[in-house]
Amino acid sequence: MAENKWVRYATGLTLLLFIGAMAVVNVLTPDQTFSEPENRVLERRPAFSVRSLLAGSFTTDYERYVSDQFAFRDVWIGLKTDADRALGKKESNGVYLGADGYLIQTFTTPPEIDVEARIEAIHSFHKATPELRKHIMLAPTAASLYRDKLPAFAPVGDERAVLDQSRHMLERLGPDIDFVDVYPVLYSKREEAIYYKTDHHWTARGAYYAYRELCGRMGIVPQDEAAYHIQEATDDFYGSLYSKSGYRHLQPDRIDLFMPKKGERVEVHYMEEGRITNSLYEMENLNKKDKYTVFMDGNHALVRITTGHADRKKLLVVKDSYANSLIPFLTEHFAETDVVDLRYYGGSLTELAQDRQYDDMLLLYNVHTFFEDRFIFNISE
């Protein structure tokens, strides 16, 4: 009896010391602003106010902050999902373990008021820049294109319905705002490798099909696939959903690059960093964890791409990381292409557009990020 008492005492003390040690580690570990494995901006410590506390938003935001900033987060997720998988569970941290090795991020249908708010932000920007032709592309994710690969009865929202709702709202804003619906062409190509299995992005092939659809709406003649050398960059890519979910023991993805046979001249100016390169691909990033950053060196506040076609038009791209693998197809059709990521850009997009006098604008997000990312509201500033 006494021995059992001491065992319980030692176990409790060990657990208490462990919890205390983790609390100290969490306090001493600096907050991270960006998760390279998940390729997303992490939650920041929310500002406290009595109003936000009473409204409940402070508690919700703080829970998300603690979840994102917890020390050794990736390790704990991996241990938990291994245990859950052994028990037959097929969901972890908002990611489903689907058929054929697909990891599929869940999608929650946004309330109508949230859809309206984002469309209104675009409308406000349009009223300030009415001369700028705008093309809006909200890319579907694997959650809608591969619903048959989801576990039975997985509660995933209807992306297609939200895309249709957004299109109808945008069409009411006038003829100079064009909704580019890439769902049909991507669905028709779903048997090809158009999305990664361990990452939330489309592949370069998926981006190529979206590029061709966009060209048709912009009045541009797209390049045929035969104009490119399709080059394997790596066959050892584990993407954001692999890291976010914690699922292990899966086959890695392959990253292909569509390299123009013609070899057009290009200069890529990373404006805030003051760096210039002559390639849209950062090949050294294939040695990093997030190999998807081979495209455009990942996400930056403002990138300016110039080509040798000075007589062509100027394009503004406002985007999330889905655009990074599509932009290389577009640049040769324009004299200059400015690429803005609102998550990092601190200036006024309206002033930039008025100063630079673009001819066309592409707003490209995947549908999940578009309705999750609060920085989209900065478009109207």
User: What separation lies between the terminal Cα atoms?
Assistant: 70 Å
What class would the helix/strand composition place it in? alpha/beta
- Care to count the β-strands? 15
The overall pLDDT average reads 88
* Total domains: 2
Describe the structure.
The chain has 381 residues and is of the alpha/beta class. The chain folds into 2 domains: 2-72, no CATH class; 103-380, no CATH class. Helix content is 36%, strand content 19%. It contains 13 helices and 15 strands. The strands form 4 sheets. The chain has an 8-stranded mixed β-sheet, sandwiched between helices. β10 and β11 (275-277) form a beta hairpin. α5 (112-128) packs parallel to α7. The longest helix is centred in the N-terminal third of the chain and has 27 residues, at 2-28. 34% of the residues are buried.
What is the topological layout?
Blueprint: H1 2-28, E1 34-35, E2 40-41, H2 50-55, H3 57-69, H4 73-86, E3 91-92, E4 95-97, E5 103-105, H5 112-128, E6 133-139, H6 142-145, H7 159-171, E7 177-179, H8 183-188, H9 204-218, E8 228-237, H10 240-245, E9 253-260, E10 266-270, E11 275-277, E12 302-307, E13 314-319, H11 327-330, E14 336-340, H12 349-356, E15 360-366, H13 367-372
Provide key terms for this protein.
alpha/beta; 3-stranded antiparallel beta sheet; 36% helix
Quick recap of the structure?
The protein is α/β, with parallel strands linked by helices. It is built from 13 helices and 15 strands. Strand 3 and strand 4 (95-97) form a beta hairpin.
